[in-house]
Amino acid sequence: MIRTELCDLLNVEYPVLQGGMAWIGTAELASAVSEAGGLGIIGAGHMPPDLFRNEIHKLKERTSKPFGCNIMLMSPFVKEVMEVVIDEKVPVITTGAGNPSSYIPRLKEIGTKVIPVVASVSLAKRLVRGGIDALIAEGTESGGHVGNITTMSLLPQVVDAVDIPVIAAGGIADGRGMAAAFALGAKGVQMGTRFVLSEECIAHENYKNIVLKAKDRSTVMTGLTTGHPVRIIENQLARKYEELEFKGTSKEELEKLGAGTLRMAAIDGDVKNGSVMIGQISGMLHDIKPCKQIITDIMTETETVIKNMQSLVK
After folding, report:
1. Distance between CA atoms of residues 22 and 261, nearest Å
2. Other Cβ atoms within 10 Å of 50 Cβ, number
3. Angle of helix 27-35 versus helix 49-62 axis, rounded to 10
């Protein structure tokens, strides 16, 4: 059985985190992942504090196991959302789009583990000085907001640069990817796209179907000129965005074009005009399973891959 120091840190059975996906990382999905032995994560996104608190309550009704919340530090509600985290004594938070250091002292008082997502070595080094518990090194293969360094290049450099557990994210959806992450020094993995294709994920059927049909080159990166690139399925929205972006359209106009489009796709099912945030690994996913089966399969396959690798050493 594979068990790393991350399991002890987070009090979970398996070193598997579910990506904190806005509109998709709901209580239904997060509780199912936690019940299956991983760490389920509610994606706060730009959620108002009252809705965020309600989602936590829904999760607590479904599971008594550890869970986490992903906090988007650029959210207009971030201060209020952090108060909810403290009130509800959320065991773990992952963070993106900013530096959580100013919140860490109060989070530490209630025992919350703080795990930022990073896309560069320099950011990893800076955040470690703030007293975080672990890091998620996320490569550009991921869906949603991404950096520009691949997981295979980023992960070992972050591992070498810090002395806390590092979790790999981006392009990981099976045991081969998990074994590769371990080989590069990771103590666990975070998966988002794989859990989109779970029975418990509430994403619209159209959203899941377009992910099932995706190929290796089905995603594109938009927002390159804004400094905040986003990986999504190529569709009418993506083509329109790219056309305007490289015509010199202002950042404000581009943000207006993208506003609300994730919900349009994930909840309303408009996968032509909505933003289908998904990773490049979607091209190898062809089925929908319960979260428990997804985690069981990846752990079993990881053990098999590691044993096969050991057999190569004579």
Report:
1. 12
2. 11
3. 30
Q: Round to whole Å and give the CA distance between 22 and 8.
A: 27
Report how far Cα 271 is from the mean position of its chain's Cα atoms.
Answer: 20
Cβ atoms of 184 and 168 closer than 8 Å: yes
Q: Dump the DSSP string for 281-294.
A: GGGG----B-HHHH
Residue with the two structure tokens 């089925």: 287
pTM: 0.93
Residues 289 and 199: beta-carbon distance below 8 Å: yes
Q: Helix or strand or coil: residue 39?
A: strand
Residue 67: its pLDDT value, please?
97
Q: What is residue 199's DSSP assignment?
A: T
pLDDT score of 296: 97
Can you list the residues of the chain whose pLDDT is less than 50? none
- Helix (H) or strand (E) segment spanning residue 136: strand 135-138
Q: What is the pLDDT of residue 117?
A: 95
The CA distance from 232 to 177, in Å, is: 21
Question: What is the Cα–Cα distance from 270 to 204, expressed in whole angstroms?
Answer: 9
> Residue 151 carries which side chain, given as an amino acid letter?
T
Distance in angstroms (rounded) separating the CA atoms of residues 221 and 139:
13
Q: What 3-state class would DSSP assign to 304?
A: helix
